[in-house]
Amino acid sequence: MLMPRQKTPDLTLPLVGGGQFDLASEGSERGTVICFYRGLHCPICANYLMELEKKTAEFAERGVTTIAVSSDTEERAKDMAEKINAKDLRFAYDLSLDKAKEWGLYISTSRGATSIGIVEPDLFSEPGLFLVTPEQNLYYGSVQTMPFVRPHFSELVGALDFAIKNEYPARGEYAGAV
Questions:
Q1: How many Cβ atoms from other residues are within 10 Å of residue 72's Cβ?
Q2: How far apart are CA 102 and CA 36, in angstroms?
Q3: How far apart are CA 19 and CA 41, in angstroms?
Q4: What is the Cα gyration radius of the chain?
């Protein structure tokens, strides 16, 4: 399990459009929002990523970068980026399922074609949303077993404003006996 205030796993992946995302050398002022999504087959992911695309500039104003990550192939990730008309949100692909498990993501098996007629991969990760500090420590994390009921990006922006103003530390860091 990932722990707040502790280093997250490394994350280095190719980007749609070329180049590479490397969390360790991201260089943002206040951190990175990493949105792990299920893949092109998920219509809920597409809607969710549209919202992140709309909020990416607001995160950038606060010194936070954004990235969408999946285990999809380059072609499927490119199709998702085009589907949501991504301009600012970066898309990384080829997330290994071993790496997904390191991040605490749940893994699902394919049920065939989804409601939009796109076949699910044999195995894929379920959603996760993380805010990682520039030092690569976990600040905020949310993982899900289903594609439904995800954290709202507008609330995360508001929480970030509060955290910046009040120098609010990451919570949930206690790992001792209870």
A1: 24
A2: 13
A3: 24
A4: 16
Q: Give me the phi and psi of 111, to 5 degrees please.
A: -115, 15
Residue at token pair 């991504």: 86
33: its two tokens: 């929002």
Maximum pairwise Cα distance, the chain: 48
Which residues have CB under 8 Å from 108's CB, separation 6+?
38, 120, 123, 124, 125, 126
The CB density around residue 148, as the number of other CB atoms within 10 Å, is: 8
Give the separation between CA 137 and CA 155, rounded to whole angstroms. Answer: 21
Tell me the pLDDT tens digit for each residue of 87-102: 999 999 999 999 999 9
Say how many C-beta atoms besides its own lie within 10 A of residue 60's C-beta. 14
Question: CB–CB of 52/19 below 8 Å?
Answer: no
Confidence of residue 152 (pLDDT cuts 50, 70, 90): very high
Predicted structure pTM score: 0.97
Arithmetic mean of pLDDT, 159-173 = 97
3, 5, 11, 7: which is closest to 100 by C-alpha? 11
Q: How far apart are CA 62 and CA 33, in angstroms?
A: 12
CATH number of 12-166: 3.40.30.10
Distance of alpha carbon 167 from alpha carbon 169, whole angstroms: 6
